[in-house]
Each structure stands twice: as structure tokens, then as C-alpha cells.
Amino acid sequence: MTDDLLTLDGLTKAYPGVVANRDVSFGIAPGEVHALLGENGAGKSTLVKMIFGLVTPDKGRMTLSGKPHAPNSPEAARAAGVGMVFQHFSLFDALDVAENVSLGMSDPPPRATLAPRIAEVSRAYGLPLEPNRTVGDLSAGERQRVEIVRALLGKPRLLIMDEPTSVLTPQEVELLFGTLRQLRSEGVAILYISHKLEEIRALCDRATILRDGEVVATCRPSQETAGRLAELMVGRKLDAPARAGRALDSLALMVRDLSLPPAHAFGTPLTNVSLRLHEGEVLGIGGVAGNGQDELLAALSGEILAPEATLFLGGRDISRLGPDARRRAGVLTGPEERLGHAAAPDMSLTENALLSVSYDPAMVKRGLIDWSATRAFAESVIARFDVRTPGPDTAARALSGGNLQKYVMGREIVQNPMVLVVNQPTWGVDAAAAAVIRQALLDLAAQGAGVIVISQDLDELMEVSDRFAGLTNGRLSSFRSTSDLSVEEIGLMLGGAHDMAPADPGLPSRKKGATA
Amino acid sequence: MTLLEKRPQPSRAWAWATPLLAVALTLVAGGLMFAALGTDPIAAIRTIFYDPLFNPLFAGYSRPQLLVKAAPLILIATGLALGFRAGIWNIGAEGQYIIGALCGAGAGLALYPLDLRLIFPLMVVAGAAGGWAWAMIPAILRTRFNTNEILTSLLLVYVAENLLASMAVGALRNPDGGGFPGSRNLSQWGSSRNVELIPDTGLHWGVVAAMIAVILAYVLLQRHLMGHHIRLAGQAPRAARFAGVNPSRLIVFCLGLSGALAGLAGIFEATGPAGQITINFNVGYGFTAIIVAFLGRLHPVGIVLAGLLMALTYIGGELASFTLGIPAAAIQAFQGMLLFFLLAVDVLTNYRIRTWKGASA
Q1: Deepest in the core among A70, A82, A122, B238, taking most CB within 10 A?
Q2: Chain B interface test: which of A9, A303, A412 (most B C-beta within 10 Å)
Q3: Residue B239 and residue A76: Cβ atoms within 8 Å?
Q4: Cα–Cα–Cα angle for A434, A457, A192, nearest 5°?
Q5: Number of domains in chain B
Q6: How far is A54 from chain B (nearest CA, A)?
């Protein structure tokens, strides 16, 4: 493969106690969309960090267009023609698009020349973006475009994209794929990391599959089934989550006409949100992040107190109860943000267990913490959800994203709540772990709990929920049974139009503040 | 090129090593400063650290002073450290110390010259209450109006100092003092005297209170849910909200507790080592305690060691300016260096230094 743009030859990187990459070799050709597949912890991140100059390999070498490629910083990688769009955006809400773009460049041109270039690149690649808009007002899809445009301004020959579609609506995904196909036709190589196997089958020319840090297979995704790809990643057969049929009669949680002001400057107010969650039912709430998802979760968790007589648990008004009292009553929640919200980064897993179990007299008696009981609880979560970690004394931030997600979701699920509300339960989690989490949510419902899943991943919502509604601009549409809905219809429900008017996929998603 | 790389986990070894490294660096830099001032640096450092404890000429007086000076520092720093861990910055312990002393002394002197064993405990309670109340001002301003407690607590120190001056020449002035400013001598009135419990050790009730405070703070941080919430709020405020921590309650708790402990330090000082309320009753314990808190890594046990070390530099510093003529300002600079180097090397706990060998294939 001498005509490859980038070749990796025997790359090895070890961290204390774990080999992240072992003898990884493959090539990426110009004009190719190359998928990098693997479970969480398979070594994908370490590999792209080596290509992008964030990590230096212990062994092995890389060649970029025939020249040795050994960047020691992202600047050096960018200078060599490698661009990267990260899964988590590094943007400042209070600054505008052009300012954010210039902050990410090693040698930014003056604004007078940068703004027209942003407009030009965004037009040329079908990425509608206004340089003067404040980033805090942008949707997730628009924010991603800022990151992509920033990478494209460096004229990369290789573009690395880490989980680019996890935050996008179906229409935005189509738009992104158009851009990527255009880049491909111009000879740009794209290294594409995603857990969404259908997308990879539709978009990617080749795929390299990593398991436990080693390359286990290379294939043409279009010639494989999604199930086969998942098996290659996991190394065994996967079962789709099973749903048990159940009768819905008694009401678990009722939200009645809940309105809340936004929690912060770039937040979204909730307007007249109502829902009825039955025992044994899974409600799916879809919509692009930033449309009131965080606020709804905070109102249900008790982090923000709701106005009186808006939340009822089995007939009891819980609107004015704080998080601990809600937990005691049987309502548990799993926030979207793992690090900093669901878990404190520098605390151990044991200490983090206490965040949501401190109401339990088995762990905390009259204010005194029983650390050995808490540690045993943490160990039980680690064991049941197969969290890969040296042990419960490890700091949360030392875990990979997917493993920490399994831990924080598991922490709530094993408590067998009456009502569980989760936001983005499988964000950035690999197929196998996502299946475990979804199955656990379904099992919980099968035992009679009411579950609310807030997510941007429509496939996930279709898979787990009985009824579905869209949350747009802080308003919740009416719920419809998922069995009568197609993904296309749902996509339209999320366009912000509750009257189901067709949305124009070519337009950026609607701004907040525009009334529906 | 040298870079700092974030450690995946904070290094436990460095957490313990940085204070020692900071002390070592302070000795070097301080030695250079003393040399530049024309003093033999070895003699200066020996006078500060060795003579107060082991030189038979001074140790008899200096050794008990170690506990006398360390007790208020430890008592105040223990309270401050709890707040600092939660991200609540009480910079005004000096003011709470003064008000504690004034309230305690006032409560006692109101009953002068009664001979009652209850008077001293009453003064101690009043002292703690005074410090608590003074700290409640920034607490309420913060929770009600979102005012920055760093500024309000600091500015209240100057209010307290003026109040002290007015009390020393006004309401609390000794009626039998011939018009001199200053209160009656509290350490000579049996009912209010903060006795030295074991002769010639400096061990007075304030030392006992400091030991109790350290033990309780340790238990609070290690075993109590409140301690967990304090650490959580300091490290990840959103996670603290998720865990059910009420930020306002935490602010009131931390400011109140640190204020009460500072007030206690004040009344123990006024009834013991200082003996009376005078215009310049406060000598900066409230500010030095901030250094002690950080030098002790905001950990109760660390604070005990840091408090003793700081007290030693006070006593040794006095000795050095007395025997070697080193200016008092140089001693303060020396103490300041300790905090400076501690904060500078602290970065090694969370980061490691990595050296790049340049871009090579």
C-alpha cells in the first residue's frame, strides 16, 4: 500500500497496567473514508491522539505522504496536514463563531480576512454558518460545523472525526455526510470514528477494527452486516435488547403543566410540560440537546425545585423536594454530563457512589459514612456492569468515557428505583456497552419501574421506548406510540414544528427564542 | 521543550512531598535573602529553627511559646481549611478573631468582679458566638445578594479593627487603669483566667480546643457526609447539586464554623497570653492561618504540623531580630516565601513535568 496517504506501522503505546495499542498497522488512502471501529477502551482514542500529536507512541512509526510523521503537538500535526474534530466541542459560548475559529488556529489571520474565509469555506462545503453569531445561541449541529470549518481552514489532507453524528438530527447527519463525500471527492482522507454501524456501512469505504488495542480485522463495511461488524468489535455474538410485553395501568409519575425559567444565560425555559409515566413503561423524549433537556432532568431530579403541584409520584406532590428527598421517595436520575455532574472527576468511584446513595441508611447512618458498605456497593456496580477499572479506588477521570458511563448509569439502575430518568444514557458508549445499558433499562421497566429516556439518538429511543415525544424549545410534544412512528416522522417532530409541517433539511435548525 | 502533563490521578507521594520541598526551597531562598542583608545565613536559620527549641539560653522561654503561638493558628486554620475545600473563601478570620475576643471579654467584664466558675465558660461561648456572628455577615451577603465573600470578609477585618480601637479606649477600658487604653487584665482575674494547665508547657485551654477541633475536623472530612459534601462542592459544584448539596446551607455552615473557631482563638488569647483587650490586640493570626491552612494541605493533621512550623518561625524570627538584628520585615518575607514556594511546587501533585526531545522520526 505504497500509495496510502498515511501509513501506521507497528504503533504501540502502553500506559501503566494497560497496553492501549499493540503493534497497530494499517494505511489510509487519499480520497478514502476510513472507519475506525472498536469498543470503549479498544484503543481508538489513543491511536488518533498519536496521529494528532497529543500522545507519542512507545514503538512503531507513521508515514504521511512518504515522509515520517512524528508530531509532538497538535500544531505540528496540523502543519503536516492533519485536522481533527473532537467528540466534545471546545468552544466558548460567549464568543462568536469567528472568534472561536481564530482561537483554535496556531496563527490566526485578522478578523477582516478570517470572517469572509469562514463564510467561503462554509458555503463551499454546504455547512451553513454565520461568522458573527454567538456560539451560545447555536444548536449542537451548528457548533459542530464551527469545529469542522476550523479544521478545514487548515486545508487538511487527513481529517479525523470522533463520533461526529452523536449529537445530530437525521437531517443534520445527511448534511454532514454530503460535506464528507465532497471532501472525499477532493482527495481528502477521512478517519471516521463512530459507534453507529449503519452510518459506517453507508459512508465508509474501508474499516479497521480494534479490539483490546490490536487490529483484529479490516473490511469493506458496505459488504458486511451491522451485526457482523458488531461481532468483530466485541468478539462474540450480540443479542438485541429484548422487550417484554406489559400492561400499563397504574401511574408512576405525573408532570402537570411544568414551566421553569432558564437556569443560566444560554439555557432554555420549559413551557407547560406535561407527561404521564406508567409503571412498567419507558417514555422516550427526543430532541437536539439545548432544547430544555438539561432543565427537564434538573426539574425531575430536584436540582431545580419545580413550582408546587407540578410533579406527582404516585399521587404525592414531590415538586418541592430536593434531590435527596426525591431519591428517598424513589425517583433516581442520570444526568447527561458524566464528568462534573454525574461524577466528580477527582474522586474515587467509591466516593462517587455516595453521590446518589447517601440517603440510604446502609451507607450513611446519622451523617456518618460507612465506607466499607459504600465500597461494596461500588464494587457491585463495577461487577454487574462490567466496568473496566483497576478497582473502586480509581479516580473517575481515569476511566474511559464509556466505562464511566456504565458506572454512573449502573449506580442508579442497581438501586431499583420506582422511577428512573436518564439523559443520554449511552452517549459515547460502544455498541456492546450500550446494549447492556439499554437492556438494563428495559429490565427495570419489566420489573414495574417507570423509565424516562431523554436522548438525541433516535435509534435508541425507537429501540427502548413505548411512547415517544419531542422536546423542542422547552416544549414537549404529545406522546405517540413508537410502533406507529417512522424515524422520518420523528425527525420532523423534532424540527420544532408540532404541527408536523415538513422541515427544510437544508436550513440550520431553528434558533432558540423563536416561538413554535 | 518542557511541558506540564496532567496526571491521570493526583500523586499521593507528591502531595506529601511538596510541603517538604517548599520548606527546603524557602531555606535556600531565605538564606540568600539573609546573606544579602549582611547576616550569616547559617546563623540566621539556626537562630530561627534551632535556638528556640534547643539552645539552653532561650529554650526555657521559647518552648512553651510554641504551643501558645501555634494554638490560635491551628484553631483558625482548621476552620478555614473546611471552607477552602468547599471553595468558600473566608479571608476575614482576623476580624472574627477580634470580635470573638471583644464579645467574650465583654461578657466576662459585665460580671466583674463576681467570683464564679461559670464566667470563663460563658466567655468562651460568647467568643465563639461573636466570631460566628461576624462571619454570618459575609455569609448572608453571599447567599442573599451573591456578594463575593472574599471581599466582604476581608473588608470586615478593618471594621473589626476600628471597633477594637473604640472598645479599648471606650466601653471596655479599665476604669481603674488611670485613663490608659485597654481593658482590665483578664488573665489576672480568677474568674476569667485562661490557666496554663501544665506549668511551663504553654498548654492552655486554647491548645485543648485546637486539638479537639483538629480531631473533629478530621472525622468530619473522613467519615461524615457533610465533609464529603464539602469536598464535593469544592471539586465539582454541579455534581454537588446532583448529590443534593444545598449551596447556601454549605456557605452558612463553613463561614459560621470558621468564624466561631476564629472567635474562640480570640477569646483564649485575650484571657491568656495577651491578658487584655488593647488597641493592637490582634497580631495577624487570622491572616497567617491562611498560610497555615494551605501549608497543611487543608488537611487537619497537616495543619497541626504547619501551625507548629509557622509558630516556630514567629518565635525564631523574634529571636533573630533580637539577637542578630534582622529586620522584622525580612522575617515576614521569609514566612511569605513559604506560601509562595508551596503554591509553586503544588502543581507537581496534579501535573508531571515532561521533557520533549524535539520532533525526531
Answers
A1: A82
A2: A303
A3: no
A4: 80
A5: 1
A6: 11
